[in-house]
Amino acid sequence: MIALAVALALQSTTAFVDGQFDPIAELIAQNAPEAREASAPAPTGCRGQYEQGALIICRFEPGTRLDLGESVAVADAQGFAVLGIPRNAPEEMLFEMSTVNVVNSTNQIDETQILFIAQREYNLQHVDGVPQTTVTPAPSTLPRRQREYAQKQAAFNSVWDGQGFLDGFISPAEGITTGVYGSARVYNNGHEGSPHWGLDWANEVGTPVYAPAGGLVTLAEPDMYYEGGLIFIDHGQGLVSAFLHLSGVEVSEGDIVEQGQLIGAMGAGGRATGSHLDWRVKLRNQFYVDPQSLLDLDLSELR
After folding, report:
1. Helical axes 2-11 vs 23-31, angle rounded to 10°
2. InterPro entries recorded for this chain (predicted)?
3. Helix-strand-coil percent breakdown of the chain, rounded to 5?
4. Backbone angles phi, psi at 51, to 5 degrees
5. Quick one: which of 303, 283, 289 has its CA closest to 82?
6. How far is residue 124's CA from residue 141's CA, in Å, rounded to a whole number?
């Protein structure tokens, strides 16, 4: 009888078999991916897709602490908080809301929820024709690379108190999409590099590059070893956009830019095979999120 019930349940898409309630079918239905999403809705105060690499923006009471795996944020004076989901996040993640007890500086957990994270498949991309000096750098370049690494880390650690992310995000340039977030890369037919963390558009040298959202410029350099012309913009709460391989830099460190403002020009400097823009987005210098997830955000109901 048990074997028969299991077989019937596996064939059924509901909790009823031949008009009778079947508890085994109900259990299977509850654990199906589509049913689990329905039974565990996303937090009502948050917007974004719950999938690997996504950006999530929430609005709760000011000072609310939000924990989503390794991504932790405290809602600002208007209640906004920025969270992210890493590239290789597990299928289930714990989401916690808590308030801070100002008397003893402890957190009181107000709500706990399991979120189900859509898993993605990442392609392997072969990229040939990259300048070999940027794939296997000469030892003599080490001091420069170390100096530039420290400079980039300092810029990534910026936490601007503005709210440029509330503008929503627009594409920073026009062109043909040649690279996407998360794909593993093999350079010059043999050297396996780290995953590609950005979104690439190819176009002619000099193609204008615009700020996808407002923010604070934390780095603006015309010639970096790996990136060529490079600009960082903090859109608020440490959500930092990086724009790589530029042929021109039209802003300076410390500038406040508006959405749609010209910031630079597309180029082919650094580790590049041709003229293109590589747009990357890093959250509080912890991990990169998919820029496409920023373009897909609809924050109208949060503002």
Report:
1. 40
2. Cell_wall_metabolism_enzyme (IPR050570), Dup_hybrid_motif (IPR011055), M23ase_b-sheet_dom (IPR016047)
3. 20, 40, 45
4. -145, 165
5. 283
6. 29
**What pLDDT digit, counting tens, does each position of 220-255 carry?**
999 999 899 999 999 999 999 999 999 999 999 999
Give 75's Cβ-side CA count (13 Å radius): 21
Domains in the chain, CATH or no CATH each: 2-31 (no CATH), 39-116 (2.60.40), 124-295 (2.70.70.10)
Please give the structure tokens belonging to residue 83: 């969270």
Secondary structure element (H or E) that encloses residue 295, with its range: helix 291-295
Tell me how far apart the alpha carbons of residues 210 and 174 are, in angstroms, rounded to a whole number.
10
What is the chain's alpha carbon radius of gyration, rounded to the nearest angstrom? 23
> N- to C-terminal Cα distance for the chain?
56
Contact 269, 206 (CB under 8 A): no
Phi/psi for 266 (5° steps) reads -65, 145
CA 94 vs. chain centroid, Å, equals: 18
* Helix, coil or strand: residue 71: strand
Tokens 């963390």 label which residue?
197
Q: Are the beta carbons of 75 and 84 closer than 8 angstroms? A: no
